[in-house]
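Much of what follows relies on a compact textual record of a protein's fold. An example makes this concrete, so a full record is given next.
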Amino acid sequence: MRKVSRVLGYVSAFASAWLLVRSPPGPAGGVVWLPKLWAGAWAPFLAILGGVGALVALARGDRKAVSAGLFGAAVAARYTAQVTREHDGFDQAFGPGWQERIPPAIRARVVPARYRLVQPKPPAVPGRRDVVLGARTSDWQPLLADIWDPPEGVARTRLAVVFLHGGLWNSLDKGFLSQPLVRRLAGQGHVVVDVAYSLAPRANLNHMMLDVKQAISWIQTHAAQYGVDPEGIVLMGASGGGHLALLAAYTPSDPASGAEEASPQHPVRAVVSFFGPTDLVAFFEEYGRANPRQPESRAQIREDLRPRVHDATPIDRFLTRTGTFPAYRYGNMPGDPLLLFHLLSGAPHEAPNSYHRGSPLALVGSHCPPTLQVFGDDDFAVDVAHGRRLHQALQEAGIPSVYVELPGVVHAFDQYL
């Protein structure tokens, strides 16, 4: 039993200690990110583990294991309490008693509390993979999406959620670690459209926006087939996908290249962004501080910084096939020095209009839909100031805005929703 108590106590202490580490900027933040992401996701169980280990060690008279277990339990329990603490963001945006305005049939499927130690298992939902929504203007390959319907017996809300995956505009794919969230949304009665939009370096921001708006237009055109209200489209995205969701929601009548087929018939109902950048000029500066190889202008782009196609080894082909990192290895791995040059064709002083039109913060006005943003305040990839500033601007414009900031939480925490 002494060995068991030590294992429980020391594992809890070691894992929970990551919760006390602040993520440094740049590549060092990526080193801290994964263990802290896991520790945060498992914090309630680390607290239980440490508590049990401390009790067993106390009975065996093992003071070191008692101390380790109590430390792990205290840190993990404190983190859990902070992250799950109630907030009044929805009351501020929609007024007291907003829950009572949710139709009873829908309210019954919403989790009654903000936190459960053991989440209910998401239901199995029917779906269609690789539905063709049109053609991507970046390469004229099919624009694909996975579409998920509510399970049998669940009344439809007639809302469709267009989901845009994370990856800072240049990596990952539809379906990547999004299944738990997608299944929960569909289980509440929503249709979910998970879109594989074009990626940099092959695509720029205009291409991506055309893909997103084409997806919105497609689901509005096929609304009757899927039991959706064409005016009931909600955009949702994470990281770069969160930015695209905000940008598409705030530019309802601004087709990037004049393609009428990409123009939605109706503005979207609402938008949800998980840690999406909102000011691309500020992001250029932040990204440059974290990635010193980022040039200050197009004239400084060296040949060794340009993306190369790497599709020769089995690992290359696996990463490309799974959509994790496509064949442009230098152009979509974390820390790509030309990320924003691919996206916006230059630095802010070289393409000021592109940075302005690409920044949701600069586009706030009375036309914007209700907005929900969720950030972790220990995000090494997207500074939390992006969310705070957009929330303030939306409030000043009179737009319902809910801003949730989770203490000690890192980038991509949505993988464990």
Q: What stands out?
A: The two ends are 35 Å apart (CA to CA). The first helix runs from residue 2 to 17. The first strand starts at residue 127 and ends at 135.
